[in-house]
Each structure stands twice: as C-alpha cells, then as structure tokens.
Write a structure and sequence with these properties.
25% strand, 8 helices
Amino acid sequence: MKNDTVLLGHGSGGRMAADLIKEVFIGRFGNPDAFPPDAAIVETDDALIAFTTDSYVVDPIFFPGGNIGKLAVCGTVNDLAVSGAIPIALSSAFIIEEGFPVTQLEEIVTTMAQEAQSAGIRIVTGDTKVVPKGKCDKIFINTAGIGQLPVSRRNISTARSCAVGDKIIINGFVGDHGVAIMSSRNQIEFNPKVLTDCASLNNLIESVFKVSKGVKFMRDATRGGLATVLCELAAGRTYGIEINESSIPVHPQVEGFCEMFGFDPLYMANEGKVVMVVAAEDCEKIIEVMHTHPLGINSKVIGQISESFPSKVVMHTNVGGKRMIDMLAGEQLPRIC
C-alpha cells in the first residue's frame, strides 16, 4: 500500500480498491484467488452454495428510479446471479442515525420487500442498530445472500473456459445509475430524466440458461463500470479483449453529462447491467432470448475475446482508431452504491 490511511479511492471498485483487497484482506482471510468472484462458492456434502455480502452507503438515499433499499436487494441478488447461482434468501442489517424519519425508513423497507418478491427471493433475517446523531449519514444497509449453484455453472465466475472467438454481451445502456445519482446529488435536471438502471437480473439470466450452455463468464458492471469488468477479465490472460465503441449503448443524456463534467461512460456505475462472455455459436440465440425480457431489450454484442493484445482491452473507436482501456485508478464518483 502506498498510503498510510484509507482514501475514498480505495472504495472505487478500481485499481486502488483491488490493491486494498489484495494487500490487506485476501492473505489474512486465507483466500488467494487472484480474480475474486462476486460470490464465494461453499461446498456441502450434497450441494454447492453461493454466498455473498455487500454494504450500501449511497448518497442521496432516494434518487430517480429507486432508493437505497432497492439498491441493496438488487445488488446482492445480482452478485449471486452473475456467479451462476439461483438466489434463495437474503439477510438485511440496518445502521440508522438517530433522528431518521420513520416514514422514510418504512418506504425503504417496503421497497426492499417489493423488490425481493419481484426477484422471487425472501428476506429471512436481519439486524438493526441506531447510532447517535452525527455518527452515521442517515442510513447504511448491509445485505448478505445465499443461492444454489448448479454444478454445471461452477466455473462461470472464474472465466476459466473463456477462449478466443467468444463474444461479449451487455444487456443495455451503460452509465445510467452513476448519472442518476450525480444529477440527484447536484440538482441537475435532464429532459427526459435519467433513471437508475437498478434491477434484479436473476430472471433475465435464468432465461439465458434455459436456451444455452454457452455462457462462460458473467459479472455485473457496478462501481468501476464496464471498463473495470473487462480489464479484470483480461488481466494476466493469454488472450485480449476487443470492443467496439459504436456497439456500446449510451443514452444521449449520459453522454452529454460525461462530456460536460469530464467523465467516461465506460467507467460510470451501473446497477442493472450484466457483462456476459458466451460461445460464438450460441451468441445469436442468447441475444434473441434476452431481447424478449424487459431487462434485456437493448442487449448488444459489444466485442469479443481476441488473440491480439494479450492481457489488454482495446476499443475500436468511432473515428477509426484504437484506444487502450485501463482499469480506473482511483475514485471517480464516491458513495455511488
């Protein structure tokens, strides 16, 4: 670690976050995985269980299209689903600042219940703590989740079976969540309004598994955005990744926001986007079934695994050039989830 103290950048989901996890946590917790998945795989005598946990500190807690409660449920469901698991149950723990309005707490909890029901899972246990005013910013939520992992999907989170020629798919527009949070935080109005893409992806993902066994890798593009997922996938591999800028869906409002404030849509946070690597021969039918689901209508093939540029991600730009895509170094937008 180059720093003696923890910085905001260590929570970015980018290179600083990866360094913190590797140098402080992984060795001490006895988990040497160089490419840690969104959910751990726990073996029992007769089943594989996926287990994950996450904490939510988003600011503001209410934003266009959602709130911290919906984010907490969707984020944990998605961490299980992109690992190939079928989500079963969640826990929920609340740290609440003294003086927090009960009506807002009720709205958040109601939203969590509705999202869990929509995703087909249960919130089965939890905890509540109240801290003195000024010791917490309104409300923080931690959720943990378990899911059943079919043996045939065991290696999806490891990307071990990815190979040259495989196609890369994303299920829609990137950057919406990051812009929704930042516009709400800074009272920036758009017409039409940019809404968070926050959604539980398990049903969309299961619809893909029903038609194909060609899914080789999945990851949800959250804090570090699409670019960070692709960089993590390519790092240390014998293959590279090539993507096409013209194929990556970005709403005009998001593109305009990024141009105005110097951000890059590729690194903007998402909370309802899955990046899939699929076998080329199954790509067409996977896209077809994704287009039949509300959360996959705008799914697109954005690139492929390539024998060129080993361990690198290269984007073919709209002006005919090539751009190297690197992992986000520090903090682009704090407290985005």
